[in-house]
């Protein structure tokens, strides 16, 4: 079960969102052409290493690490979430404001990972912390925007619309639980970077939210987007022929 789209048209051409996706894809294309030794050299220079940052070195990696990924699946998942939620946050903040927001969320996510495991020498990479910040900002602005989840039940596929606050709260709650329970000292998912990025996005969005009226904005919109939502048709029926049992 994962989100595929929201019903919240932004009304803009999300130039920065698309540019960030394009830049991440371009970096991954470049990395995929390198031999393993060069890839590890790239990680050594630009990945976030909590131990180094805790010792006062490699501060630039708080940003550069957000443009490196461990593979195409890692990249694809992050860019899917950015594509769904990024355009609305960009519309709310403006292009320059959104770019600054994204980079600050990446920094917040990296610092959270450093605080969670300051002695770790393991390189940390991925845009997920910055994207989590976008999700945190989206939650504050549009908690009741509808998000379509694609649900797979063996051979049955369904699209289920769910309020954004449920999708995002379940996601960040799951990250916090796994961060508390899963031992990642030997590597794995940087759960606390996700939680830290989400929290950073929430905090960074407080001022823009208050400028819109804060609780009064929520009371006016009931947490839904203040414009007509996008409508989508049903999924087309499958063309795979049904084979009956005899």
Report on this model:
With 246 residues, the protein is mostly helical. The chain is 58% helix and 9% strand. It is built from ten helices and three strands. Strands 1-2-3 form a three-stranded antiparallel beta sheet. β2 and β3 form a beta hairpin. α1 runs antiparallel to α5, α6 (95-116) packs antiparallel against α9 (191-211) and α7 runs parallel beside α9. The longest helix has 22 residues, at 72-93. It is globular.
Number of discrete helical segments: 10
Q: Strand order across the biggest sheet?
A: 1-2-3
Look at the structure and give the mean pLDDT: 91
Distance between the termini: 33 Å
Provide the descriptors you would attach to this structure in a database record.
246 residues, mainly alpha, three-stranded antiparallel beta sheet, 10 helices, globular
Give a quick precis of the structure.
With 246 residues, this protein is mostly helical.
Set out the fold topology.
Elements (H helix, E strand, L loop, with lengths): L1 E5 L8 H18 L3 H11 L3 H5 L6 H4 L7 H22 L1 H22 L11 H14 L4 E8 L2 E8 H18 L9 H21 L3 H7 L25
Antiparallel strand pairs: 1-2, 2-3
């Amino acid at each position: 079960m994962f989100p595929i789209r929201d019903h919240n048209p932004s009304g803009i051409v999300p130039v920065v969102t698309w540019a960030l996706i394009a830049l991440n894809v371009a970096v991954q294309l470049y990395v995929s052409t390198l031999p393993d030794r060069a890839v590890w050299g790239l990680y050594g220079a630009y990945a976030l290493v909590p131990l180094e940052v805790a010792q006062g070195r490699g501060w630039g990696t708080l940003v550069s690490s957000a443009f490196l990924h461990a593979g195409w699946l890692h990249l694809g998942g992050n860019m899917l979430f950015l594509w769904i939620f990024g355009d609305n946050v960009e519309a709310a903040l403006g292009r320059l404001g959104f770019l600054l927001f994204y980079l600050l969320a990446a920094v917040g996510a990296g610092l959270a990972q450093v605080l969670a495991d300051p002695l770790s020498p393991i390189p940390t990479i991925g845009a997920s912390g910055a994207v989590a910040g976008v999700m945190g900002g989206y939650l504050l602005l549009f908690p009741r925007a509808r998000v379509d989840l694609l649900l797979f039940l063996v051979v049955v596929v369904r699209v289920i619309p769910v309020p954004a606050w449920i999708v995002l709260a379940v996601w960040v709650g799951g990250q916090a639980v796994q961060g508390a329970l899963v031992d990642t000292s030997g590597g794995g998912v940087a759960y606390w970077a996700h939680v830290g990025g989400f929290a950073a996005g929430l905090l960074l969005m407080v001022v823009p939210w208050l400028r819109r009226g804060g609780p009064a904005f929520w009371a006016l919109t009931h947490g839904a987007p203040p414009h007509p939502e996008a409508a989508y048709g049903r999924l087309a029926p499958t063309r795979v022929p049904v084979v009956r049992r005899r």
